Amino acid sequence: MTVIKTSYNRRSFLKATAIAGGGMLLSFNWLAGCNIPQTKEKALEMPKEWFELNGFLKIGENGVVTIQSPNPEIGQNVKTSMPMIVAEELDVRWEDVVVEQAALNTGVFKRQLAGGSQSIRQGWKGLRMAGATAKHMLKQAAAKQWEVPVEEISAKDGILSHKSTNKSIGYGAIASAASQLPVPEKVTLKEVKDFGIIGTSRKNVDGKDIVTGKPLFGIDVQKEGMLIAMATHPPAFGMKLKSVEDAAAKAMPGIKDVFTIQLFNDDYARGFVDSTAHSELVVVVGNTTWEVMQAKKALKIEWKNSGEQTLTIKNFRGGTVNKKLPAALENSVVHLSQMKQIAASTAKEVRKDGNPAKAFKDAAKIIERSYSAPFLAHNCMEPMNFYANVTKDKAELIGPVQTPEFMEKTVAARLGMPLENIDIQMTRMGGGFGRRLYGHFLLEAALISQQANAPVKLVYTREDDMTHGVYRPAYYATYRAALDKDNNLIGFHVRAGGIPEGPLVANRFPAGAVDNYLAEDWSIDSNISIGAFRAPRSNFIAGAEQSFLDEIAEAMDKDPIAFRLELLKRSKEVPVGEKNDYDADRYAGVLELVRDKSDWGKESTKDLHHGVSAYFCHNTYIAQILDMATVDGKPKIEQVHCAVDCGIVVNPDAATNLTEGGIVDGIGHALYSGLTFKDGVPQQSNFNNYRLIRHSEAPEKIAVHFVKSNIDPTGLGEPPYPPIMGAVANALYRATGKRFYDQPFMGDKDVLG
Amino acid sequence: MATFDLTINGEKKQVDVDPKTPLLWVLRDHLNLVGTKYGCGIAACGACTVHIDGTAMRSCVFPISEVGDNTVTTIEGLSEKGDHPVQKAWLQHDVPQCGYCQAGQIMSASALLKDNPNPDDKAIDTAMNGNICRCGTYTRIKAAIKTAAKNS
Ligand code: FES
Ligand code: FES
């Protein structure tokens, strides 16, 4: 039995209020309870935000339960899954639950951030606590009314009953009385085995609105008197505005104004959400989107080289650092040769176990392979946009952003307004993938509204969206393995880097499984702006590592799964080094599960080629086997088996959907996608020249298998995405006899069926 | 500017716009029918798919001047109660993730089923290849189309 405390140092995580007209409102903290500190020292570090009440649970007189979710929905289904957790502990019928996006106000809903696949993991205990507390208070109210001990009251499906007196009452009827009671100091959580909602599939609460085209997204916002704005940024990274000739544009029908905006003041220290390369933009404001688009094309703008730039960046300790951006107009061809060069020369040691130098010197055989991947644009299907209405003393901002709490500060600093006067409201987002962590478009909208003195909706064209920056970095990794004369793996070396940041995660597998291990990191400066992209770093390094392990297994003449399991066994029994960032048993567990569920190692009537891959990131373990057939001489992906260990699965069908999506997206990026540069200009600008995976290229079938587990749940937005790239490469090798090292594997070649 | 009389989702509408304005922006900006989405503006993603006289068309490149007497159906008008077999199948398979591409997917799928009530995989691939889903819901889309075919 798990009993949890609902307060800390006499400060409560919950608050009960009566609803005017009857019923009970329980305010709670969506994040609290994730780590109630055990020691006094730790308690001092407890963030204030945990006491802010940012979630609400309402029980109406009619028994309808309304759960307000403060988390933005970007497609990871939190708006359905998180309220399921509350409903479970509350013991109500899911049919009686209404889910609302919480009243949109960052003043109350601080610390809401959809990123890093953390929503479910961090919300788990706080949500359970809220449901359990409300239930307990309802029980207490009934106990009082019936004059029976509270322990004798049971709750089920929104009804409280007392067996020996044969009394029962619905939650709605007792809710007002419950709201008058003090919040209990401790509550008991349900046993996992007693779950009735968690672990069962519930449909997306917004499903009907989506399939009927209801206005849910930021780009759908329409307001009285609202103007449309579009912004033009420099065509190349490393360039800035020289002059604008706007007379023709201004004279066009429907155009209200043309002006430039400057995003940041010179002395402003940028935080991580302020990533953008272009701080001065030319803006067209007008009545309708089409008119503004036309006028934008009629602008005559001259650009000039921006030269070397220095940015002031906030560091983690609250100070600032200066970051130099090179002046060059960059080229992908040059990037690749620079990466090869640096990879062959110097790097920074991040982790070393044993004596790798000696292992490689003594080796009977050394395998060395290098892998690369290009910059990627996020390409959320809903282009960047934001609504802003900035008046003298107030800024109202509505739209799709993953980091409202941080952007509020950025806007306050730039507009010189107190934080309280800035109101950021979040809409459903047409994809995020990390892109909407960087809310420069929100600041742009605010500045445009201020200058135009009107409410505006800033909309990026697809071209603006794709060429504006904040990309996944370009990556390069070199792996080396040392085998002794008996074909044992005695040394492992990874040297990885990127432009402008590397993908290395030094403490992950196979660290801990090899006696002599060396991980090194390097990077090359660039003026191209980058940011997090679905499973940052892992999204490249997983595929590279898993392809390399496949080659080592082949050189050792071992089955690729058996080889990985041997390494995991070694790391469990006699781990090498410290801080190994994985649980070898759970890692092995997904590999075994996927092996057993698939055709791996079995006779098959079909001519299928299997590629395996497994990875652990963002707290979830994934193993995949991809089956490739050859149809008319071309490889075709028939099926993907995916084993997942994310602890307790809250909403299995939604979790399966998210896993399928990550797999399809990963296959697409590994095979087709890439953003290249010539003289600083992105060479792809829309879906005619930037290739994303399409319907016919998706696997015929995806089978997702969850590890049965009672461990607290972890996220799924990111983990299924990185490893599939390795599975694709390994299956391609078996299907074609050729190893693929450089993404996108297919480029423009229409090799796949 | 010119005046255009349109029949959209069975209703008569009149707009006064530049004749070159794509239907997409007339729907979104002038008629407040924002279910039809903007994704690329060059007929490369399918987010803006509508039916013009029952045929799936990309409204982002379809000038308003060419609509003429043809009837236009958008996601809002596909069914009165959101119970078109394709919409029902979409809910049954819980297809959407972020949901942004789905109006376009549903419009492409419903036009396909009208012409070809029992499409094989190849026909589905061909009809749906113009609709991008960055969230990667393609396998569910295919399954939902098959369910809708069975139930319509
Ligand atoms: S917006 Fe029309 S096809 Fe992309
Ligand atoms: S559901 Fe997000 S783009 Fe398709």
Throw out a few tags for this protein.
heterodimer, A: about 750 residues, alpha+beta, Aldehyde Oxidoreductase, domain 4, 3 domains, seven-stranded mixed β-sheet, five-stranded mixed β-sheet, 34 strands, about 25% helix, about 25% strand, B: about 150 residues, Ubiquitin-like (UB roll), DNA polymerase, domain 1, 5 helices, 5 strands, about 35% helix, about 15% strand, binds FE2/S2 (inorganic) cluster
Biggest sheet architecture of chain A: 7 strands, mixed
Order of helices and strands of chain B: EEHEEEHHHH
Widest sheet, order of strands of chain B: 2-1-5-3-4
Which outline of chain A best applies? globular
CATH T-level topology of the largest domain in chain A: Aldehyde Oxidoreductase, domain 4
The SS-based structural class of chain B is alpha+beta
Count of domain modules of chain B: 2
Tally of alpha and pi helices of chain A:
17
User: What share of the residues of chain A does DSSP label as strand, in percent?
Assistant: 25-35%
Kindly provide the name of the CATH class of the largest domain in chain A.
Alpha Beta
In this structure, how is the largest beta sheet of chain B organized? 5 strands, mixed
Please state the CA-atom Rg of chain A, rounded to the nearest Å. Answer: 28 Å
Quick one: how many beta strands of chain A? 34
Described by its quaternary structure, the protein is heterodimer
Give the uncertain stretches of chain B in residue-range form: none
The unreliable regions of chain A are 31-52, 106-112
The most extensive contact between chains is: A-B, 68 and 61 residues
Report on the architecture of this protein.
The complex is a heterodimer of chains A (753) and B (152). Chain A has 753 residues and is α+β, with helices and mostly antiparallel strands. Chain A has 3 domains: 2-211, 2-Layer Sandwich (Aldehyde Oxidoreductase, domain 4); 221-310 and 384-459, Aldehyde oxidase/xanthine dehydrogenase, molybdopterin binding domain (Aldehyde Oxidoreductase, domain 4, 2-Layer Sandwich), CATH 3.30.365; 346-376 and 471-736, Aldehyde oxidase/xanthine dehydrogenase, molybdopterin binding domain (Aldehyde Oxidoreductase, domain 4). Helices cover 27% and strands 27% of the residues of chain A. Chain A contains 17 helices and 34 strands. In chain A, strands 15-16-13-25-22-23-24 form a 7-stranded mixed β-sheet. Chain A is globular and about 80 Å long. Mean pLDDT of chain A is 90; it is low at 31-52 and 106-112. With 152 residues, chain B is α+β, with helices and mostly antiparallel strands. Chain B has 2 domains: 2-77, Beta-grasp domain (Ubiquitin-like (UB roll)); 85-151, DNA polymerase, domain 1 (Orthogonal Bundle). Chain B contains 5 helices and 5 strands; from the N terminus they run E-E-H-E-E-E-H-H-H-H. Chain B has helices at residues 23-30, 85-92, 102-115, 121-128, 138-151, and strands spanning 2-8, 11-17, 49-52, 55-58, 71-73. In chain B, helix 2 (85-92) packs across helix 5 (138-151), helix 3 (102-115) packs across helix 4 and helix 3 packs across helix 5 (138-151). The longest helix of chain B is centred in the last third of the chain and has 14 residues, at 102-115. Chain B is globular, with a radius of gyration of 15 Å. The mean pLDDT of chain B is 97. The complex binds FE2/S2 (inorganic) cluster (2 copies). One FE2/S2 (inorganic) cluster binds at residues 38-41, 43-48, 58, 60 of chain B.
